[in-house]
Amino acid sequence: MVEHLRRSTREEREQWIREANYNLFKLKSEQVFIDLLTDSGTGAMSDRQWSEMMLGDESYAGASSYFKMKDTIREILGFEYFLPTHQGRAAENVLFSALVKAGDIIPGNSHFDTTKGHIEFRKAKAVDCTIAEAFDTTVNHPFKGNLDLNKLEDVLKSHPKEKVPFIVVTVTCNSSGGQPVSMENLRGVRQLADKYGIMVVFDSARFAENAYFIKTREAGYAGKTIREIVLEMFSYADAMTMSSKKDAIVNMGGFIGMRSKELFEKASVFNIMFEGYITYGGMSGRDMNALAQGLREGTCFDYLETRISQVAYLGQRLVDFGVPVQQPFGGHAIFVDAKRFLPQLPREQFQAQTLAVELYLEGGVRGVEIGALLADRDPETRENRYPALELLRLTIPRRVYTNNHMDYVATALANVYERRNSIIKGLKITGEAPIMRHFTVDLAKV
Ligand code: F0G
């Protein structure tokens, strides 16, 4: 598919971003020239996926599309039981309804915002056990998504088993910069989980990109196929949630994979209540077909290499211009270090959001803030939470843009970098939702 892109003038963009209250989520897509807001649901489906759409079986119960998805999940991910859901957070909602109660503790590696939202919404607590190296963008560690096993063990040791329903491992870890978790670390988490009798759940949106990094960075895996690595990764999990809008390259869809029949039965009740009958769970038959095909394509080495190399291409262009970014480069995005880019701004003025607005004004490029706005307020004290990293994420959709587009983005950001010292005022909040405020927040210039 070829899409028309509309160029705009700086004057137009100034007006549009003001009307959007400096929140890039509130822009119309036609007001954006290059859209790096997210890699979620924004990929281009292949000829084979579109062919699968024609074969969709829309039967309410027992559709062949459901069985196609079930067989593919068993073959590629190794889970016997599964439930379809309409997207990743829906999978979290269903699974957490079955597992999480008020007062619980859920350790993990920089939980994604919807995951944390679903935990905190249930009055439970997410405890971040990511390794310290992840929070210094200048440290070059190959697996910045890893959990610090000592921190994790401290959490498991200091709470009764009944209070810790599971450990959640996000592969790749989106919040720390699309950073992978090593196989050695996954094995270590499994060993601790077994020692303390706790379940392990993978938040799997970008599991194939994680497998690519294991193959290319971890000793002993260069000769293994992506599919072999994926099967080993998931062998360390009891269950998984999936946003298929990422590594399954569909516009909408998700699922839960489980090993236990008992958990499947428990979760099925919530799936029927929130999503739909257990053989469609909010998805059309045609979409389940495209998803199954997408799982096959998303786990091909050549595809992954092309994709991740494009992300690295943008990263290298930015590094060459001197722009500070999270190193090494992540799988789905380049994360610009806004604290190092705009050190003159106080954190209370939302450095990463200010930078996102500047990049939009400069070139019509839409990135997304991964910083204090996203981190939200502490549910108990209602104080702003300031995370260790303040990042502008430039997220690359799958199979959509060319490296010419990446050159344009890099040049636009380099222009902002050149005039960075003239940016002396940030943003302030004028209105916000009680949870997951970043989507709808209203801001004004300080
Ligand atoms: N887990 C991870 C690691 C994610 O990155 C996302 C979504 C979800 C869960 C929730 O999935 O959107 O299908 O409901 N991430 C998108 C992003 C929104 O832009 O990073 P969803």
From TrEMBL:
Taxonomic source organism: Lentimicrobium saccharophilum
Pfam short name (any one): Beta_elim_lyase
NCBIfam families reported in the protein's UniProt record: PRK13238.1
InterPro entries on file: ArAA_b-elim_lyase/Thr_aldolase, Beta-eliminating_lyase, PyrdxlP-dep_Trfase, PyrdxlP-dep_Trfase_major, PyrdxlP-dep_Trfase_small
PANTHER family from the UniProt entry: BETA-ELIMINATING LYASE-LIKE PROTEIN-RELATED, TRYPTOPHANASE
Modified residues (N6-(pyridoxal phosphate)lysine): 246
Keywords in alphabetical order: Lyase, Pyridoxal phosphate
Highest taxon of source: Bacteria
Residues annotated as domain Aromatic amino acid beta-eliminating lyase/threonine aldolase: 35-411
Cofactors required: pyridoxal 5'-phosphate
Family the UniProt entry places it in: Belongs to the beta-eliminating lyase family.
Gene3D superfamilies per the UniProt record, alphabetical: Aspartate Aminotransferase, domain 1, Type I PLP-dependent aspartate aminotransferase-like (Major domain)
An example Gene Ontology molecular-function term: carbon-carbon lyase activity
Name recorded for this polypeptide: Tryptophanase
GO BP term, example: aromatic amino acid metabolic process
Spans through the membrane: none
